[in-house]
């Protein structure tokens, strides 16, 4: 009888423990991967972090579930990309947060100079991302000042890595006299190209993906690739490169070899990259290596 009672109590306690674990709310909620990445690295094991946009999903069209809204309300800190990117906030973050939740519009961390703030994809500029890391560090310390030194050390380690790679890339492009690459995607790399003095010819001038493309636009990019005599065409992350493959097939019929390379816009990552804890730094390194390959280095 005692053995049965012991087993019963053990099962009840296990169920309660599992339930509590499942219902534990994240301390910090982020809408997109760039700020999630910085937050996860800075907070370490001191605070839990949740990413609203699931790995592999399109960030532009994201809308939260009612469960996610509840998660935001119960969080200590809510990080959103901008009112333009997170249109579901309806220009008023207070509508979905509690009085106890600190909110940070991450775009507010970027100075309104050289039109960088007006770029929907401001996070693609490494100089801007460095400011994002610094701003998130300060905000995390605001909600948990007792671990200030821990957060500062983590942030400084990451900032040093980013700055070192950023300097290497800047110095590389200084030797290239503003080179041009061709991008079969939407206009998502303005801050990136401006920072590195790189000319990115995009298929679509719109700042959002899935825009209706005309045959004329596709033909124009194809002819520009041929005229430049480049054999590399860049594609977006997380999207099937249908247009790029069409251009590649058309050129193949003319015995013109074209290779596809990814130019990552940092919107989101694949599930494999997420599970492997791939960082903004890692994606920047990928972009750098792919661009070097396209430029013959």
From TrEMBL:
GO terms (BP aspect): metal ion transport
PROSITE patterns attached to this UniProt entry: PROKAR_LIPOPROTEIN
The name this protein goes by in its record: Probable zinc transport system zinc-binding lipoprotein AdcA
Pfam family, one: ZnuA
Keywords attached to this entry: Lipoprotein, Signal, Transport
Organism: Haploplasma axanthum (Acholeplasma axanthum)
MF-aspect GO terms: metal ion binding
Family: Belongs to the bacterial solute-binding protein 9 family.
